[in-house]
Amino acid sequence: MNGIKQIAYFGLSTLSLKVLGFALLPISTRILSQTEFGELTFLVSISAVMSLLLCLGLPELLLSNK
């Protein structure tokens, strides 16, 4: 059951990060220029892909340590 709890914490933290990013979107579009916003969007996209790649197999890893 400890593995399920860790996965739930990971899911909750990921969800809160996405909500925070969505809430900050109007602020960042007002402050940044069009070029800077494009660079920020590129970096966010790269970090999202890397996050997906690094999280592959995480539930199996956590649940296999029984």
Draw up the topology in text:
Elements: H1 2-31, H2 34-54, H3 58-63
Largest sheet, in brief, is:
none
Structural class: mainly alpha
* Percentage beta strand: under 5%
Residue stretches low in confidence (pLDDT < 50, at least 5 long) are none
Q: How do the helices and strands follow one another from N- to C-terminus? A: HHH
Q: Give the count of helical stretches.
A: 3
Number of strands: 0
Features:
66 residues; mainly alpha; 3 helices
What report would you give on this structure?
The protein is an all-alpha fold and 66 residues long. It contains 3 helices and no strands. The model has no long low-confidence stretch (mean pLDDT 83).
What is the gist of this entry?
By secondary structure, this protein is mainly α. It has three helices and no strands.
